[in-house]
Amino acid sequence: MRNNSTKVVVRTFLHSAEEGLVGIEESRAVFGRDLYVQGSVELCVDGVVILARDDVDTIDSLWSFFLACLDDFLKRGYGVLRFPECAYVLTLKRVAGGRVVMKFEGPNKNRSALGGEREVIDGLLLGAVEFFQSVLDSSPRDEWGYRRDLGAALLLRSDLLGS
Q1: pLDDT digit string (tens) for 112-137?
Q2: Whole-angstrom Cα distance, residue 19 to residue 35?
Q3: Burial of residue 137 (number of CB atoms within 10 Å: 0-12, 13-18, 19+)
Q4: pTM passes above 0.70
């Protein structure tokens, strides 16, 4: 029997002049909604890069917007993520067979992939949980907003896994 499982890789990177490109788990960045920490989310689905390390934006805002996109997707089967500071757009659309089509568009960028809905959404929600947990562990400043986002990610993941 053939395995139709989708392999999803989600990692968060921070970008800074001092440290260069660093995974969130290795970073010593201090976060706050007014600090505009730059970073990127790497999303690969079955080896296809949808979001790349060079798709940089304000990382805490990006992950917050990701949660709204994922919430819309789970409720309506369609979600749009507009990057906070860049002209990038990621769309997620539910299609037949428990699959999701992802399209990333921006200046000189156009990528798409098809993957298993549950694996893709769970991978992204796990990425959000890891990001906000790391932020809270390293930077208690502006704790309430980050705790709210972590709680939202955990709730969405619970709803997804419970279905």
Answers
A1: 999 999 999 999 999 999 999 999 98
A2: 16
A3: exposed
A4: yes
- pLDDT class of 2 with cuts at 50, 70, 90: very low
What are the backbone dihedrals phi and psi of residue 140, each rounded to the nearest 5 degrees, phi first?
Answer: -70, -10
Q: What angle do CA 40, 41, 43 make, to 5 degrees?
A: 145
**CA distance readout (Å), 16 to 88, 106, 128, 133:** 20, 22, 20, 20
d(CA 86, CA 88): 5
Angle at the Cα of 91 from the Cα atoms of 65 and 136, rounded to 5 degrees: 25
Among 23, 65, 19, smallest CA distance to 40 is for 23
- State residue 54's pLDDT score: 93
* Phi and psi angles of residue 83, each rounded to the nearest 5 degrees, phi first: -60, 145
The 10s digit of each residue's pLDDT in 132-158 is: 999 998 876 668 899 999 999 999 999
Give the 3-state secondary structure of residue 156.
helix
- Residue 103 burial by CB count (10 A; 0-12/13-18/19+): exposed, middle or buried? middle
